[in-house]
Design a protein that fits this description.
- This protein is 9% helix and 57% strand.
- By secondary structure, the chain is mostly beta strands.
- A hairpin with a 4-residue loop joins strand 1 and strand 2.
- The two termini are 36 Å apart.
């Protein structure tokens, strides 16, 4: 990096550090952030609660999300289970979510806050679509599918504090902005994908009952809580990767590209401590369609000086098609197997693409 760019990095990172101090950006999270926030009148305003979970010994995983969109016709809710091979079980909810006390309920799905910023209970009781090939999900009609009675009861508990994305490393972000020749006016567009955002590495225990088969799950998980404007069509692309290698090491790696902005963010959790990401090199191999992730590899350095090299393989990909007006967005949500040295872990590899 030349002298000119180095000076720009110093100015940008210094300015952001001052702004954080003046506006108390990145202050420690308080329990009240776990509860619903007052929405704006923005059509794309969205408050999202997301959890994923996996058990390597059972070869099973899943994710669930409730997205509250008060300025649109319906909220969004889902419980998805990766049931082995290409098979998934899908439960989709429509209508309005309800929040009362420590419970957020949406149809057959409910989230219970046991201890803010630390522990939740996830419950689903109802019929789920039984799909033998996840890739076919967008073209299938629900009425043509077999269903299974499914009961999910999981408790998820943080193995480290929540990571507030406003605690990201200022110099690392400044370097990415400068090296990508980002137009500073485009930085404001990043707020179109939720300006308030924190995540947490978790352990997950409980039971999943599919028909007459009951599965005891004891594994790991990851959660995400965000609120603000979320315009799915705003980013050119994004990548969101999570994995837990037991309780020793876990990571979250995200990439958001909007207009001239192309930045990486996230954190590494090591022995119960979160370290923001410092530098990343990521390479992804896609299938022939150029959209479906197949394998990936990255080299990551965190602010504590730890460097990890990880490879990953998408095991089961669920393609989700989102439409708003003439905008068509594809989100490929995959259960992925990751390798770090001789360790194997499981998590999610999510890739977003604009189709138009």
């Amino acid at each position: 990096m030349g002298a000119g760019r180095t000076l720009k990095v110093c100015c940008l990172s210094g300015s952001y550090a001052v702004l954080k101090k003046l506006k108390k950006i990145g202050a420690p999270l308080e329990a009240d952030v776990e509860f619903l926030h007052t929405p704006t009148e923005d059509y794309d305003w969205n408050e999202s609660f997301y959890f994923n979970f996996s058990d390597p010994k059972r070869g099973m995983g899943g994710w669930t999300r409730i997205g509250i969109t008060p300025n649109q016709e319906s909220d969004m809710g889902a419980m998805m289970l990766y049931a082995g091979g290409s098979r998934i079980l899908a439960g989709l909810q429509a209508g309005r979510a309800e929040c009362e006390g420590d419970e957020l309920r949406f149809g057959d799905l409910s989230y219970h806050r046991i201890e803010p910023l630390r522990k939740w209970r996830l419950v689903f009781q109802g019929e789920m679509m039984d799909v033998d090939n996840a890739r076919k999900l967008p073209e299938l009609k629900p009425e043509s599918l077999m269903t299974q009675r499914v009961e999910v009861d999981l408790e998820v508990e943080g193995i480290a504090p929540c990571f507030n994305f406003k605690d990201s490393d200022p110099r690392a972000l400044a370097e990415m902005v400068v090296m990508a020749r980002t137009r500073l006016g485009d930085l404001r567009k990043v707020s179109k994908v939720s300006s308030e955002h924190y995540e947490q590495v978790m352990r997950a225990v409980g039971t999943i009952k599919i028909g007459n088969r009951e599965i005891s799950l004891a594994g790991s998980g990851h959660r995400d809580h965000s609120w603000g404007s979320r315009d799915w069509a705003a980013p050119r692309l994004w990548t969101w990767l999570t994995c837990q290698f037991g309780e020793e090491l876990a990571f979250n790696l995200s990439r958001v590209a909007i207009a001239s902005v192309d930045i990486y963010n996230g954190f590494v959790t090591r022995d119960g401590i979160n370290y923001p990401i410092r530098r990343v090199v990521l390479a992804t191999q896609f299938e022939e369609d150029g959209l479906t992730q197949s394998t990936l590899g990255f080299r990551l350095e965190d602010t504590g000086g730890k460097v990890i090299e990880v490879t990953g393989e998408a095991l089961t990909v669920i393609p989700l098609h989102l439409e708003a007006g003439d905008r068509h967005t594809l989100v490929n949500e995959a259960l992925a197997e990751y390798r770090w040295g001789d360790r194997t872990g499981y998590g999610i590899a999510e890739y977003l693409h604009q189709l138009d």
